[in-house]
Structures are given as C-alpha cells and as structure tokens.
C-alpha cells in the first residue's frame, strides 16, 4: 500500500498534535500549575483566609512604630523567604533580580550600587524610612507606579513590621526604632 506525500504529511501533523497534547496532559497531572497572584509567580499556592470581621470594625490601625516595638526579626526572616527569589540581604553580596537589601533601612531610595532601577524608583527620591518601607511593602505598585517589582505586597501589618525589623538587623549599623 502506497501513500501519497500529502497523506504522509497529514498523518505526521496529526500524530505530532496527539503527542504534544498527551505530553501536556501528563505534565499537568504530574506538576500542578500554581495560580498567579498580583502578577507575581509563586512556587506553591497559598490559601489566605478572609478576616472574620471587616477591617474597619477592628479599630484604628497601629502605626509602624507601635508595630515595630513588638515585631520579631526572626519571624521577619521567615516572611522574607517570599522575597528571597529576587532579593538578598547579605553584606557584599551581588544583586539578584532585585537589589541587595543589606543596609536598606535609612538608605536613599534607588541607591544600591550597580543595580539598574526603574525610572519610577529613581524618580521617587527620599530615603527608606520605616514608614516608607511599610507603605512600599503594602503595595509596591501603588507606592511607585511603573516600578519593575512584580510582588503584590504584604497585606498583614504584622508581617510587614516583622520584615522591616529583620531588614533593620541586616546592616552594619542598624537604625534606631522610631
């Protein structure tokens, strides 16, 4: 039985499509796809529970100074694990996708030597005060619209305070608490 060139090409395309579909199907079974949250890519999905009561009913929000007074740097180091995909906070270490955060508390914004910042960050000016870090970590895109950071932010004020307390320890001369 002889097949024409057109029949052979059609069969090849059909078999290739089946192989691609099958490989994709098996791959999805073996490795589940994690959802994208706020444009950031996460290695594993995390389940966030809704607050029991609306935030307005919880009372006035504490200032960053009050939160830092009770913040645990060790807990902040654990929360900072979310940041380690793009950042390092080690003296003398190079940059990753994001800048090295060693000595970031009190440092001028967009000032880590050798890192190429977005225009949004270089135009921001000022320095990384505790208040600015808290606002930035709440929502990087709202703090400096147009910046390159894809992280959605830390919604928990306690988590933000813990990370800031941890970053405060990552310095040759930690800044005093407010």
Written overview of the protein:
The protein is elongated, with a radius of gyration of 24 Å. The termini are far apart. The chain folds into two domains: 1-33; 63-169, Orthogonal Bundle (Cytochrome Bc1 Complex, Chain D, domain 2), CATH 1.10.760.10. The chain has 178 residues and is mostly helical. The chain has helices at residues 5-30, 64-70, 73-79, 119-122, 130-138, 140-143, 157-169. Keywords: Cell membrane, Electron transport, Heme, Iron, Membrane, Metal-binding, Photosynthesis, Transmembrane, Transmembrane helix, Transport. Its main location: membrane.
The counted number of beta strands is 0
β content, as a range? under 5%
Oligomeric state: single chain
Q: Please summarize the sheet with the most strands.
A: none
- Radius of gyration of CA atoms, rounded to a whole number: 24 Å
Summarize model confidence as the mean pLDDT.
85
End-to-end Cα distance, whole Å, is 87 Å
Task: Specify the CATH homologous superfamily of the largest domain.
Answer: Cytochrome c-like domain
Number of helices: 7
The share of residues in helices is: 25-40%
Uncertain regions spanning at least 5 consecutive residues = 38-47, 53-57
- Under CATH, the topology of the largest domain is which? Cytochrome Bc1 Complex, Chain D, domain 2
Overall geometry: elongated
The CATH architecture term of the largest domain is: Orthogonal Bundle
Q: How many structural domains can be distinguished in the coordinates?
A: 2
Q: Output the CATH class name of the largest domain.
A: Mainly Alpha
Helix and strand content put the structural class at mainly alpha
Keywords: Cell membrane, Electron transport, Heme, Iron, Membrane, Metal-binding, Photosynthesis, Transmembrane, Transmembrane helix, Transport
GO molecular function: electron transfer activity; heme binding; metal ion binding
Protein name: Cytochrome c domain-containing protein
Domain Cytochrome c: 71-171
